[in-house]
Specification:
With 311 residues, the protein is α/β, with parallel strands linked by helices. The protein has 11 helices and 9 strands. The strands form 2 sheets. It has a 5-stranded parallel sheet with strand order 7-6-5-8-9, with helices on both faces.
Length: 311
């Protein structure tokens, strides 16, 4: 019998989800994907529910995607930005959230620079918490939309498929959530990037590591290419961006020289000419724009499913 509700009240990380949870989110997202492609893109599923978007770090794509998902579900939306808030005046995270909850908020979507911040909140306040990225720890909705996009692109489940993750693994919460999600779904995962950007002991998560971009591309069905996160790098991990591109960048010329067709993904924003050349990002092999559309459907699914499990 298929599962009809999530096993958890919060989305704190992929680690906290079961395989059945992931499949339920995907099945629900498929239904919402039809909704967002209709002439009338709204449904009343979250009417009378108030969602607060608390972003303690800058974000454009994730925040807009969540806000759009919430409005498509007819929720009331409160947006909060730490850069213009009382946080700068010394207010604690818990005080900030309690003040917002006193306004009768039902669900909180939070991005925070401190790993574990959503878990901390989930133990102290009654609202459903959705982790929109916490430090270099996890970014579960991105991993879910990535895996969902992979399944749609391959028209198949991911069990036994070869998925490569390229780039800045060390600083990437997307990489960690992707690894957890893909392994739960039975995919083979290989990481590829400079040795300085691959965490030590990462193989303990059941992944392979390669430093050869061509061999990795020849092996994989899908290449998920991550952004070089210069803002998180306090020391130089490679000589220059040009040097990085020469050794680990993906160009159309490189893709065309392979015998196997590779689907290319990127969570964005892209450093064009560094991780990917423009002719790859804009090519038929790229599903980057599909990821954006699928992100709204996945976030609608998560919001809807969690709304049925309110305290």
């Amino acid at each position: 019998m298929s599962q009809n509700q999530l096993s958890t009240r919060h989305l704190l990380g992929i680690k906290h989800l079961t395989v059945e949870d992931i499949r339920l989110i995907f099945d629900t997202a498929l239904e919402f994907k039809e909704v967002i492609n209709r002439p009338i893109k709204k449904v009343p599923s979250l009417r009378d529910i108030t969602v607060a978007n608390l972003f303690f770090e800058n974000s454009t794509r994730t925040r807009i995607s969540f806000e759009l998902a919430e409005k498509r579900l007819s929720a009331d939306v409160v947006n909060f930005s730490a850069s213009s808030s009382s946080v700068k005046k010394g207010e604690t995270l818990l005080d900030t959230v309690n003040n917002i909850l006193s306004m009768k908020v039902d669900m909180v979507v939070m991005r925070h620079p401190a790993p574990g911040a959503p878990i901390y909140l989930s133990k102290r306040i009654p609202a459903n918490i959705i982790n929109a990225g916490d430090g270099t720890h996890e970014h579960p909705t991105q991993a879910l939309l990535d895996a969902f996009s992979m399944q749609l692109a391959l028209n198949d489940e991911l069990k036994g498929k070869n998925i490569a993750i390229f780039g800045d693994i060390l600083h990437s919460r997307v990489a960690m959530s992707n690894i957890f999600c893909l392994k739960k779904l039975g995919a083979n995962v290989r990481l590829c990037g400079p040795p300085t950007l691959i965490p030590k002991h990462i193989h303990k998560l059941g992944v392979d590591v390669s430093y050869d971009i061509r061999k990795t591309l020849e092996w994989c069905d899908i290449a998920n290419v991550l952004r070089i996160q210069l803002e998180r790098q306090d020391i130089k991990y490679f000589p220059s961006l040009r040097e990085y591109h020469n050794h680990f960048g993906i160009s159309k010329k490189l893709l065309d020289s392979l015998d196997n067709p590779v689907i290319v993904m990127h969570p964005g924003p892209i450093n064009r000419g560094v991780e990917l050349t423009s002719d790859v990002a804009d090519s038929d092999q790229s599903i980057i724009l599909q990821q954006v559309e699928n992100g709204v459907a996945i976030r609608m699914a998560i919001l809807y499913l969690l709304s049925t499990l309110r305290a």
